[in-house]
Amino acid sequence: MTSRLARLLNLVPYLVSRPEGVPLAELAADFGVSVEQIQDDLTMLWMCGLPGYGPGDLIDLAFDADTVRVLFAAGMDRPVRLAAHEALALSVALRVLADTPGVGDRAAIASALDKLAAAAGEAPADVTVRDSVADPGAERYADLVASGHAARITYYSASRDTTSERVVDPIEVVAADGHAYLRAWCRTAGEIRQFRIDRIDACAELDEPSEPLRLTNQPAPTAFLESELPRIELLLGPGAKSVTDSYPCESVTGEPDGRRRVTMRVRDLDWARRFVLGLGGEAEVLAPAELRESVRQSARAALARYAAAA
Fold this sequence. Notes:
Blueprint: H1 2-16, E1 22-23, H2 24-31, H3 35-46, E2 60-64, E3 67-72, H4 84-98, H5 106-120, H6 138-147, E4 149-157, E5 162-176, E6 179-186, E7 191-196, E8 200-209, E9 231-236, H7 242-246, E10 251-254, E11 260-265, H8 269-278, E12 283-287, H9 289-309
């Protein structure tokens, strides 16, 4: 969802800068998405605009064969001007991001802070920001990721109360709820796992390089998920398309019938039950069996109540 929002915000200024129009295929290539996705984005933009939402307030696009151009930008081509409280909120968020382990391009964050001050017309007030992660070892693992080497770690799993040794290919260091995690391909488990850094009892960097090819067909980064959370597998219909935009998914696979097979982590199975029920007939639970049965029982109970009311 975040990447799509950024794309939508950039589409209009991009098109305004090219008033002669842009071929859909070229537009999709420039934004790194499919033609179908860029068409969906343009359709959404068509219904956006300033309050009032009459014909003269909405973004207006023109399609000539396979070319698109903007007729009315509804103000999205104007420079950003921030109020002081807005600049302060963004400034605090950027400074927290700068203190987050694994964020490598701190120069870009510093540049963004400078531009933020310029957009606000004045420097945001100085506010003390508490460290987002207390673990002092986070930077060490950020350096390990940057080294491009594999590592052998000894890890304590709190959920199983066991300690194991495994070789991992580091991907990134992420933070959540005051803890830092090493996200890596675990060669023992044969999948991506996240290891809480304060539970890594030992770590030895290996001479062999990390093997990014192991990640070729793996899911996109889901920074704020812990590997110990329950994993569910769903089969989603076209009406549940927003799920993959709104929730971090470990994998998304298209099926021949147009549905999508989605694997994702959830906080707990009770939340997953409510989530699936909210999707109605657009979702089918494939795994785990416990969730499948729970959804079935809840659906039957709901139908029984409707029958009794009738």
